[in-house]
Design a protein that fits this description.
Elements lengths: L16 E3 L5 H14 L3 E5 L4 H9 L2 E5 L4 H4 L5
Parallel strand pairs: 1-2, 2-3
Length: 79
């Protein structure tokens, strides 16, 4: 198991995460174009449904995850 605090086990990888945070589709389109243009990949924390989710899933450019603000739903806490 890797621990970021352990210098000897830490690799030189860079991990990118992005949050949607209820952004409008025009901004997601710009974001998608930048991802394509730069060739980077990462994790997108999802907050809402949008037509762009299908594109992200189909292209497999981004891994999609549940936004951390929604962890309580997974833990069955708070409602």
């Amino acid at each position: 198991m890797k621990y970021l605090s352990d210098e000897k086990k830490r690799d030189k990888s860079i991990y990118l995460t992005f949050d949607m945070d209820w952004v409008i589709d025009e901004v997601l389109e710009d974001f998608y174009n930048l991802i394509i243009e730069t060739g980077v990949t990462g994790l997108l924390n999802v907050t809402h449904d949008t037509k762009w989710l299908k594109r992200f899933r189909d292209d497999k450019i981004l891994e999609l995850g549940i936004h951390p603000n929604y962890n309580f739903l997974l833990n069955n806490v708070g409602g």
